């Protein structure tokens, strides 16, 4: 995903709102929020605002929460190898050099979140 800069005050406010929500919602509700409150839609252009999973800020929030979730026991230990592989891929140069997020990327993220949420309900 290409680097996105914040050039408008509304973009900065949008980013700050997302960070505040990410930090104040307690797990596992945070995983549910990341999965359900952002659109899976893939626009044809890079977005600088809006609640879309294609945005870099969504991926940063997901990766951060998965890592913290492993550290504090919110993510069940059995997911550790899968989460580590996921984080390695979605923080790699290969992923960051993709022109846009793909449907496969979003399906993989949703699938991991679904499995974690279902396991937590057991």
Descriptive overview:
By secondary structure, the chain is an all-alpha fold. It has one domain. The chain has six helices and no strands. The chain is globular and about 40 Å long. It starts with 8 loop residues before the first helix and ends with a helix. The N terminus is likely disordered.
Question: Quick summary of this structure?
Answer:
By secondary structure, this protein is mostly helical. It has helices at residues 9-24, 29-36, 56-72, 80-90, 93-96, 103-121.
How many strands, what sense, and barrel or not for the largest sheet?
Answer: none
Q: In percent terms, what proportion of residues is strand?
A: under 5%
Task: Name the structural class.
Answer: mainly alpha
Average per-residue pLDDT, rounded, comes to: 84
Low-confidence blocks of residues: 1-6
Tell the overall outline.
globular
- Work out the helicity level: 55-70%
Helical element count?
6
Q: Measured on Cα atoms, how large is the radius of gyration?
A: 14 Å
Helix/strand order, N-terminal first: HHHHHH
Keywords:
mainly alpha; 61% helix; disordered N terminus
Fold blueprint:
Blueprint: H1 9-24, H2 29-36, H3 56-72, H4 80-90, H5 93-96, H6 103-121
